[in-house]
Amino acid sequence: MKVSTNQIHGKKIDVFIVESVVVGSGAAGLNAAVQLSKHGIKDVALVTEGITKGTSINTGSDKQTYYKLTLAGSTPDSVRDMAQTLFNGGCMDGDIALVEAALSTRAFFHLVEIGVNFPHNAYGEYVGYKTDHDPRQRATSLGPLTSKVMCERLYEEAKRYAVHIFEGYQVIGILTMEEDGNRRTVGLLALNLNNLSNADKRYVLFNTSSVVYAAGGPAGLFFGHSVYPESQLGSTGIALEAGAVGRNLTEWQFGIASVGFRWNLSGTYQQVIPRYVSTDQNGGDEREFLSEYFLDPGKMLTAIFLKGYQWPFDAKKVENYGSSLIDLLVYNETVIKGRKVWLDFTKNPEYGSKDGELDFSLLSKEAYTYLEKSKALFGTPIDRLKKMNPPAVEIYRKHGIDLEKDYVEIKVCAQHNNGGLKGNIWWESNIKRFFPIGEVNGTHGVYRPGGSSLNAGQVGGIRAAQYIASRYTDPPLPLGKFLEVVEDQVLEKLELGEKFLSTLSDKSNVQSLYRDLGDRMIRSCGILRDRDSARVGAEDALTSLKNLPNAIKIASVYELKDAFRLYDLLITQYVYLKSVENYIEAGGGSRGSYLVHDPRGTLPHESLPAVFRHKPCPANFFKIIQEVQLEESKCQFKWKKIKPLPEKEDWFETVWESYRKGVIFGSK
């Protein structure tokens, strides 16, 4: 790596010249840096705002899942079968599904070899379990902190390969040029968060041959309604600004989560059947509100239990007292009525109990058998939780919440964006030499098996590294040429930064702007959606984006990072809400993790207000993918048929020849 200090319109700026740059330090980004090194790229830099700030190292659940091919027992499985499961989720290309399935074992065993100790039996079989939308037992786990351990081991591996770690850098621009009729990336512009007070060190440039973009999902869009760690906000907007195509941006995953300590309340937290309690904003007027909607206590208790492995809100599970009715009832209490909702593990639900003792005979056979086999047909929810999953209790205790006495405040929160930036089977964007991987890449469709995102992130890093090592080993642009190409793009961002700094004030309004953005998102792109709300939300987002340099007030130069983050998030929000509007205008209905309002539609429960009336999604919408590209503040949409699973019969000798000659990577 080389560094050079240069000037752009009289402004000093350092330029780091490096062969390949990875943006982001979650499990996907760290693995990409390691894989690039393993594939022979000697000069790799990893740019991150903080090694410990990404989603992967800060999130988990009662038993955080990693998804891969079955590796134990006698139940048949195959690459093709796993690909079919991924493909069956709808709105997913078959070629991507096949790649994710084919490389799942390679990615998994790479983690095992570097010290991620996934459990196996005495015979070496990696025994699994079923997860959401999974017909096999392909899931495995280390417990609540699977992805955290992955990050720790991958970080050690990155250091072993001498990856250049740039910690405290926020990427604010993806720099491109036209080449052979295509747009390609040539570098990045970043804020140096370590030197914001020094005008000569505030900005840095990276001149590079390829960029692997592992910036995570746009978590900041749901500010205040999110289970993402507070440090994870996302950087999708600058990629959309640079011309990257988005796909399936309408598809999010929502679920019940705690908001004091952001954590998914899935798995055992629900299977022990806690109380759902609603209060006013001051904690008064306490009531167990679920019983107002469930005529049969057995159905209510079973629905709570099923939230354990039916955790994401699912439009298909709201009718007939399905488990996702609970999400709607929580949403109704919190967003529509403006109350607070809590989980209480200290007592059994009154509805279905006698003298405080739960009547387990009211449960469905599935729920009863599960608790019976877990030897948990006794006591209170906290007693059962301590028996079935002690680490699930401890993780809250470490964050100042004692489930043996404290209520846990909950909301229906955004947890994962199934959509994102488009990539091909090598994870390369429509922008050449730009590889979005991890959550920022929209590889998933409407539904996905739990834990498959961790697999997709690891597979994406392998594929990007393979392609870069095969096709993009040429050096970065000569420095003079690079500066000439990027000058106008850089100057535009520097001028924007100066506008932000001109708003220095005694009182910051940054947090207020974040809250406004989050409230707009939950109204227009949450689990309840309608065309007018999406249209108005998109218009408001675009207006806020244009007015941001004048509307924002920052208290110091150190909030410059927030100003650029809000700029990114407003671009993202505008494109996402236009995508929702376009989806509904095209005839799309309720699917995945949201309902689309229809005044003549079905009401999930007769006691819910009319705003919950919704229409089903036509079957053909699961066979097409919405793509969007931002061009001069306008969103251009295309609807494409999904690619089927490849049917080609391979013959070893011909594949061997194609592999030796590099034909598998396509034409140069």
Notable traits:
668 residues; alpha+beta; Methane Monooxygenase Hydroxylase, Chain G, domain 1; 5-stranded antiparallel sheet; 23 strands
Quick summary:
The protein is α+β, with helices and mostly antiparallel strands. A hairpin with a 2-residue loop joins strand 15 (353-354) and strand 16 (357-358). Helix 1 runs parallel beside helix 5.
3D architecture notes:
- With 668 residues, this protein is of the alpha+beta class.
- The two termini are 26 Å apart.
- The chain has 18 helices and 23 strands.
- The relative contact order is 0.15.
- α1 runs parallel beside α5 (146-160) and α2 crosses α3 (94-102).
- Helices cover 34% and strands 21% of the residues.
- The strands form six sheets. Strands 1, 2, 3, 6, 7, 8, 9 and 19 form an eight-stranded mixed β-sheet that branches. The protein has a five-stranded antiparallel β-sheet with strand order 12-11-17-14-13. A four-stranded antiparallel β-sheet has the order 18-10-22-23.
- A hairpin with a 2-residue loop joins β15 and β16 (357-358).
- Among the domains are: 253-415, no CATH class; 491-620, Methane Monooxygenase Hydroxylase, Chain G, domain 1, CATH 1.20.58.100.
- The mean pLDDT is 95.
Level of helix content? 25-40%
Percent of residues in beta strands: 15-25%
Whole-Å distance between the termini? 26 Å
Shape: globular
**Beta strand count:** 23
User: What's the pLDDT, averaged over the residues?
Assistant: 95
Number of helices: 18
Rg calc: 25 Å
The secondary-structure class comes to alpha+beta
Q: How is the main sheet built? A: 8 strands, mixed
The low-pLDDT segments are none
